[in-house]
Amino acid sequence: MTMEWYVTLFGFALLTCGTPGPNNLMLTASGANFGVRRTLPHLTGVAVGQPVLQLVLALGLYPLFESWPPLRVGLQIFGSLYLLWLAWRIAVAGAPGDPARRSRPLTLLEGLGFQFLNPKAWMMGISAISLFSLPGASYWPSLWGIMLLFPLVGFPVCFVWVLFGHQLSNWISTDRGWHRLNGSLGLLTALCVVMLWY
């Protein structure tokens, strides 16, 4: 694996992890509603979940996923429905400190597990393996390189989205403002479903 391979992979990971998508919008909402410290388990789950998904794909799910389209469509439907449910949860969340509010941040395991239902995470995993895995004896070393680089890039990049959400919370002082923020983040998360299908 050459330096050019690492630099290109770094750019790919930076672009895919840093652009808006379900994970980053949910992390922004969590940072705004629960703060940076309480969002860290969710963030860690996202960062660890992507290489775990890539490993599962590399161990045999990738060829099955490619050769059996109903599996791909079924996963996309289930993941989209779950994402819409999470978008609804974000949209209806009240202001922090509201006694009627029962929501909580995602745990590490929920953040990790969500990667298996997140259509963008699947596209990222499949694209990374198909573009950057090397043939022959270099296959597994290149795959370990991919799985190592993604969390190293993804954690700090996604942390910026958490900080952005936390900063938004510093600018909002009314219940109406919180309803608008959460409604907007919920709508944007739901729109990710549309973009991922089309």
Key structural traits:
single chain; 198 residues; mainly alpha; 0% strand; globular
Instruction: Name the beta content range.
Output: under 5%
Give helix and strand order, one letter per element, not per position.
HHHHHHHH
Overall helicity: over 70%
Mean pLDDT: 85
Over all CA atoms, what is the radius of gyration? 18 Å
Number of helices: 8
Describe the sheet with the most strands. none
Number of strands: 0
Which residue ranges are poorly predicted, with pLDDT under 50 across at least 5 consecutive positions? Answer: none
Please tell me what the overall shape is: globular
Q: Which structural class should the secondary elements be placed in?
A: mainly alpha
Q: Give the CA-CA distance, first to last residue.
A: 34 Å
Task: Describe it.
Helices cover 81% and strands 0% of the residues. It has helices at residues 3-18, 22-34, 36-67, 69-91, 108-114, 119-132, 139-171, 175-197. The protein is globular, with a radius of gyration of 18 Å. The model has no long low-confidence stretch (mean pLDDT 85).
Describe the protein's topology.
Elements lengths: L2 H16 L3 H13 L1 H32 L1 H23 L16 H7 L4 H14 L6 H33 L3 H23 L1
Helix pairs in contact: 1-7, 2-3, 2-7, 2-8, 3-5, 3-6, 3-7, 4-8
